[in-house]
Design a protein that fits this description.
This is beta-lactamase. Its EC number is 3.5.2.6. Pfam families: Beta-lactamase2 (PF13354). By secondary structure, this protein is an alpha+beta fold. It has a single domain, classed as DD-peptidase/beta-lactamase superfamily (Beta-lactamase, 3-Layer(aba) Sandwich), CATH 3.40.710.10. It has twelve helices and eleven strands. A five-stranded antiparallel sheet has the order 2-1-11-10-7. Strands 3-6 form a two-stranded antiparallel sheet. Helix 3 packs antiparallel against helix 4 and helix 4 crosses helix 5. The radius of gyration is 20 Å and the shape is globular. The two termini are 23 Å apart.
């Protein structure tokens, strides 16, 4: 049929198939894991606890969540084999739908780049930084895994602006760009302070890319691990029981963990202008809408006429398990109404295609129920 695309469903997942069909949009053919499927932020350090120091601005009067959508979201989660949480929130009507485990902290991975970006833009709003502030990156600042900016860092370093680093971190999920912003804004303490000051809820922030990744693998970070595939080689030399124990500790209590419900609520507040200035809010959402990662995740079911800004996150693999496979964002209908959503898969052995189809089915269900359909 003209204008339709084809997707392959796995046997028995009728709720997912029904959600995709009812939406009137067919998702893309699943060819692989998408653009950004590398590991990001993880750790084994003792996590701090956060409490809000200020009242959270009031949300719009809460209406009842659509019954069919609530039932569909619940069924999608219940039929997925693995630890996962789904949260959907109407920015305009105030209702929220949260699956089982939506209040449980799960590995964020690169989703945590959102909080770095918000902290940086809050500093811009306060006049402490500018988007054109220069940031020098040296070879000793390089991180690991996905870091395209590393090719620009020569012996004498590379100077980027805050604007360039934000673009790279949020649209390419560049780890070195993100850690450079983190260093510039005051380190993990500054981000944790922002999360607390803004009352964002059940969201943790770890100690930075290198320590997080090394801790999850069971390694002690050395800067030479940033070059080539040295980190992967060091990880491969570890005894299997050391890797397994480190991985299990991380999944059980991720230091970068966040609840899907808290992330969806934070995104709804961002959209309403409760977190940043209007200028910074518009800038961040436009940047999220230009993201090039996660082509086959939530974005895979966004129909023509709708807009979507998001941030993905993907963790390390061990023996077929993945510690964190996520996508969170803001989905806006042609009539301007917006939904904040978070789909976080904390630990699973299911194939990548099944994870992507779960995410696409959530978007498809929202589209199908928009406007009371």
């Amino acid at each position: 049929m003209a204008g339709r695309r084809i997707v392959t469903f796995w046997a028995g997942f009728s709720v997912l198939e029904r959600a995709l069909t009812l939406a009137g949009v067919a998702p893309v053919v699943l060819m692989g894991a998408g653009v950004h499927e590398v590991a990001t932020s993880v750790a084994l350090l003792a996590p701090p606890s956060y409490q809000s120091l200020m009242p959270v601005p009031e949300a719009p009067p809460r209406m009842l969540a659509p019954r069919v959508l609530k039932e569909t979201i619940g069924a999608l989660r219940n039929q997925f084999d693995g630890l996962a949480g789904i949260a959907v929130r109407s920015v305009d009507e105030g209702w929220a739908i949260e699956s089982v485990d939506a209040d449980r902290r799960m590995p964020q991975q690169s989703v945590s780049k959102l909080w770095v970006a918000m902290t940086v833009l809050d500093a811009v709003d306060r006049g402490r930084l500018g988007l054109d502030t220069p940031v020098r990156i040296r070879r000793e600042d390089l991180t690991l895994f996905h870091q395209p900016i590393a090719s620009l860092v020569k012996a004498d370093g590379y100077t980027a602006t805050v604007r360039e680093l934000l673009q790279r971190a949020m649209t390419q999920s560049d780890n070195t760009a993100n850690d450079s912003l983190l260093r510039t804004v005051g380190g993990p303490t500054a981000v944790r302070s922002f999360i607390t000051r803004k009352g964002l809820g059940n969201i943790r922030f770890g100690p930075g890319e290198r320590l997080l990744q090394a801790g999850t693998a069971g390694l002690t970070w050395r800067q030479d691990m940033a070059m080539g595939r040295a980190f992967e080689a060091a990880r491969a030399r570890l005894p299997a029981d050391v890797r397994q124990a480190a991985y299990q500790r991380y999944v059980a209590d991720p230091v970068d963990g966040a609840a899907p419900a808290a992330i969806a609520a934070a995104l709804a507040r961002l959209k309403r202008g409760d977190v940043l200035s209007s200028t910074s809010t518009d800038y961040l959402i436009r940047t999220m809408e230009s993201s090039k990662t996660g082509k086959y995740r939530l974005r895979g079911a966004v129909p023509p006429g709708w807009t979507f800004g998001h941030k993905t996150g993907t963790g390390q693999d061990l023996r077929g398990r993945t510690a964190g496979y996520n996508d969170v964002g803001l989905l806006t209908a042609p009539d301007g109404r917006t939904y904040a959503l978070a789909v976080m898969i904390g630990d699973t052995r299911r194939p990548i295609q099944e994870r992507q189809l779960l995410m696409q089915a959530v978007v498809a269900a929202i589209v199908a129920n928009h406007g009371g359909r």
